[in-house]
Amino acid sequence: MPTRAEELASRLIRNLDAVEMQSYRREPLYAGRCARLAPGTAARKLGASIDIIEPGQRACPYHLHHAQEEMFVVLAGSGTLRVAGELLPLKTGDVVFIPAGPEYPHQIINSGEAPLKLLSVSTMESPEICEYPDSGKYHASARDERGTHFDAIARGGETLDYWEGEP
Fold first, then answer.
1. What are the residue boundaries of the Cupin type-2 domain, all occurrences included (predicted)?
2. In the chain, which stretches have pLDDT less than 50?
C-alpha cells in the first residue's frame, strides 16, 4: 500500500529523464521523440510534454490555436521559430510564449546540427479549434477529464445549413 507521500508524488511529479519517449516520423519533414507528462497527474487545465526534434526536422505542422496558449522552453540545442510569417532564431534557455488567436501561427524547426529538446506546456482549453494555414485544414475538438467527446479534422470547403439533417 503506497504511503500518502508516494501517492502525492505520483499525482504531482514527473521526471523528464524518466519518462518513456515515443518516436514519430512523417517523411520528409517531421521526426523526433516525445512524451506527454500531464496524463495521470492531478492537473486538469495544463498539458506538458518533453519533445526532442531531430536535426532538419519539425515538431508539428504550422498551426494556430483559437483557445489554447502554449509555452516552449528550449532545454538543449538550437532551432527556428516560424511564427506569423517570420523566422526567429531559438537557442538553449529561450522561452517562447504563444497566445491563442490568428496573429501567431507557429511551428518549431530544428535548424541546428544536434537534437532540439523542448519542454512544451499548454493550457488545454476545450473546446478548441486549431487551424493549419499551409494545408487549409482545421481541427475541432472538445474533451474533459473523462476523454474526448468530439474530434474532427477537415478542410473548410463544404458548409451546411443549420437545419441540414434535422427532423
1. 52-121
2. none
